[in-house]
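Hello K.,

You asked for the raw outputs rather than the summary table, so here they are, unedited. I folded two proteins back to back in the same session to keep the settings identical. This is the first:
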Amino acid sequence: MEAQATRRDRVLVPGRSSTRALGALVLLVAAGALAACTAAAGGTHSDTRTPRGRAVGHAGGRDGASPVAGAGSRSTRLTGKARSSHKAPAAFGVGLWTATWTEPQGSTENFYEGASEPGRQMQVEILYPTLSVKAPAVKPWAPPAYRFGPYPVIVFAHGFDVDPNTYRVLLVSWVEAGYVVVAPFFPDTSLAAIQAQHGADTESDMFNQPGDVTFVVSQVVGAARGSPPPHAAYLAGLVDPARLVLAGQSDGADTVAALLYDHEYARTRASMPVQPIAVALLSGAEWTRTEDVYSAPNRGGSPVLVVQSLTDSCNDPSDSSLLYNMLAGPKWFLALEDAPHLGPYVGDGAAAATVERVTAGFFDLEVGRAKVTPAILGHDGDQPGVSTISSATSVPLYPAPPYVPGACAARAGAPTD
């Protein structure tokens, strides 16, 4: 029987065609000085990569008073703002703006036409706390809740042939917990980009994405320091890049892991104006090109949460095990007992609520919020029949589950916004 192509196989062999996504992306474009605002995506989006095998080798308006100016803490040195002493609501409503940022140093490939053009233009979706609606409602152009800021900021990297809207349920849960989420649409691997190239296989462009994440981080830091990128002046006083979290799912998790641990991206990593205080790798893996060599950062690096379903035949569970076991610093491994590749991150299935709770709890723990302790995180991660969580030095190299056709896609009808 012919072996199934792995996700890495597809990345390393250009020219193979991608499956069309299951749903359509609906964009609402807003006029004005602020950027176009992306509405909740309609239909079901799919990550149409084929399963990959076992890893090889090792390694604007405001609703309250401005934050009071302060000094002394690491966060105030970056933002110039002190965090409010007011009691925040149990859950924030969610505001939504989008902007378009262009990284002039890079280039964007058109895989369909076999051409490239200078610059990497990215639509960036920004979700933030607001008091103008109640959780979990999402309101475009809502006034930010500056009163309780500045907030920790999560830069999120999406997977292949999907986009930030695919993960709307998960991202909203983070904003409800008091985070700003900044999520770029990657220039060649987002749903719309692939559709614009008539389904061409663009997945190899993910090797450019560590640079995209670094660029987005630099724009967030610039906004906090008073030099905002286009259509993002409102981020000043809203984001605290000293409490930066990097997170990604699938190819997005690969992107974040490569940026932080792959020697090939050492210069890119060093160019980031701040380093993350926490990292979440959701169904990720190491890249296996000859030039990709992974190792743990000096002094252990930032605390990491690795999440992996043991029945995911798109991302081999041992891929996540290898990533986790390579890391030397504080870390957690959340093993989902029976979940698909994308479902737990798009609000589909029993594991989704656990992922939302554990990821937000992990972030709270690492940014210093007293409401979460390691014991609470362990309790939330150990759910009979759903998940287990470990902070051990290593976890087993879990066996590959049987191949399931369409394993990289969301279940038809699964919620994605």
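The second followed immediately with the same parameters:
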Amino acid sequence: MPSQTAAIQWQQFLNKFQNTLWKVLDWIFPPFCPGCNKTGIRLCEDCRSSIRRISDPICPVCGEPGNDSSICQDCLNYPPEFDRLRSAALFDGVIRESLHRLKYNNDIGLGEILAPFLVEVSASQNWDIDLVTSVPLSNERLRMRGYNQAECLAKPFAAMIGKLYAPSAILRIKNTKSQIDLSAGERRENVSGAFYANSSQVVLKSVIIIDDVSTTGSTISECARALKLAGAKGVYALTLARAPIRTDR
């Protein structure tokens, strides 16, 4: 479809332009590595090599690391709406510091540095993807922060794999409290009915959702439910990091 091809090419051009802009800004205001504070580099090789990647055995559905490759108990008890979820690394050390800086310290240039980790995981899955979107923030939280950290990862990811990024494919229609410190059950209840998907953008499409961190997968599962209700034929998910699950109290 020519219009979609043109849109993808435009997004790739903007991504390259933004890359150049970050290089200029880095020359004027030298960055520092989130892991060791080394000046002049966004993520040094030593810290990059210390990142704990997630590998098999994992749950084949949600990607939770485990003792074998069978479906985890949580997916058996509460089958998620997404088809598959994978995460690049454990939420600790350099990855945790990088995401905290991206999310809370306005270091949005880190999205370009971290997105290749998602590309690597995506390439290993051979998913047939039509478009890319990201877990949306509420309007209130977006106004407070000024940007969506998941979008900072999703936009360069989409450009790198040559797929259309559709930021309005899914919207958050209900303000929810932070998922931090909530149990698995509380997380599912907290995000229930919080999202709406645009059927004109997703019907009969295979969609990949990007987020920064997954814990129980409840937020992404609820996004996937909205996408499938809107007619998406498949929903996959990628997160940069995986945090330990806090079980129900």
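DSSP finds ten helices and seven strands in the chain.

Happy to rerun anything if the numbers look odd on your end.

Regards,
P.
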